[in-house]
Amino acid sequence: MSGSTIIFYLLAALILVSGAMSVTSRQIFRAAIYLLFSLIGIAGMFFWLQYEFIAAVQIVVYVGGIVVLIIFSIFLTQQAGEKLAKQKLGRQVFSALAAFCGFALTLLQVYQHDFIKTTAVAIEPTVSNIGNQMLGVNDNGYALPFEVVSILLLAAMIGCIVIAMKSKPEAA
Amino acid sequence: MMEPGLYHILFISTALFFIGVYGFFTRRNLVTMLMSIELVLNSVNLNFIAFNKYLWPNRLDGVFFTIFIIAIAAAEAATAIAIIINLYRSHRSIDVENAEEMKY
Fold first, then answer.
1. Domains: count for chain B
2. Contacts of B8 in chain A (CB under 8 A)
């Protein structure tokens, strides 16, 4: 067993265990920290797959952006040391059952399916390859979706400001 | 222990997806539901990258879809948190049971 295999299983355990803790922990701040570890594990998995650029984006956007935002919103909306209310046992059991059935069904389909690998020569996912193809306007270019996403980000930013703005009392 | 391949990564991403679904079903707090959604989106990202690496290494489309999903997830999280904070300001609670008044 090589070192790469060991690292893969360690990352898999980190992702799944901290993901499960993040949805079951009753202390909301701990849940956010477990989510952080799960996302770091995913970034490590991207490193393991040798997609370094995606791993860097994952760390910058998720770990540096979204988790910090979630932690701030926890600070703004929760009283310190307060635990989340305990859920009804029936709801927990049925949710776990539904999730497990979906898991088993999906996995059954995945293992029955025979994936066919292409034989074409591989492209290295380097930053220059990604950038050239993503902003290209020829056949495999993604310039239009890129622009659409930039408009979406602008709209989301304006929307956030409008929603979160304190409404001034009406000047009578 | 076998050499990890496509099926191992698909197992991890499926498990993570349904962990997120379980959290979405059981949690009643809007922030924790948002965290479950992040787990689901991340499992999809892992799937795209794994398919790109193992099945179509001659294309980069999985990478682009992953980047777009990450950008959209960031926009979605920011908007959701703005709504949550605004809801907390008016209701003093971010439970989903109280959030149904939002439609009026």
1. 1
2. 8, 12
* A87 and A10, same domain (yes or no): yes
- Rounded to whole angstroms, how far apart are CA atoms A30 and B34? 15
**Joined tokens for residue A57:** 């984006």
Between the alpha carbon of residue A49 and those of residues A52, A128, A154, B53, the distances in Å are: 8, 18, 32, 7
CB contact under 8 A, B81 and A58: no
Segments forming the whole domain that contains residue A45: 1-95
Distance, in Å, from the CA atom of A122 to the CA atom of B53, rounded to the nearest integer, reads: 9
Question: How close A125 gets to chain B, by Cα (Å)?
Answer: 7
- CA dihedral for B20, B21, B26, B29, sign (positive or negative): positive
| Contact status, residue B60 vs residue A129, Cβ threshold 8 Å | yes
Nearest CA among B8, B86, B81 for reference residue B46: B8
Amino acid at A136: G
Quick check: B19 and A99 CB within 8 A?
yes
Print the domain residue range for B38: 6-103
Total domains present in chain A: 2
Cβ within 8 Å, pair B50-A49: yes
Q: Is A17 inside a domain boundary?
A: yes
Please check whether residues A138 and A87 belong to one and the same domain.
no
pLDDT tens, position by position, B2-60: 778 889 999 999 999 999 999 999 988 888 999 999 999 999 999 999 999 999 888 88
Complex prediction ipTM: 0.90
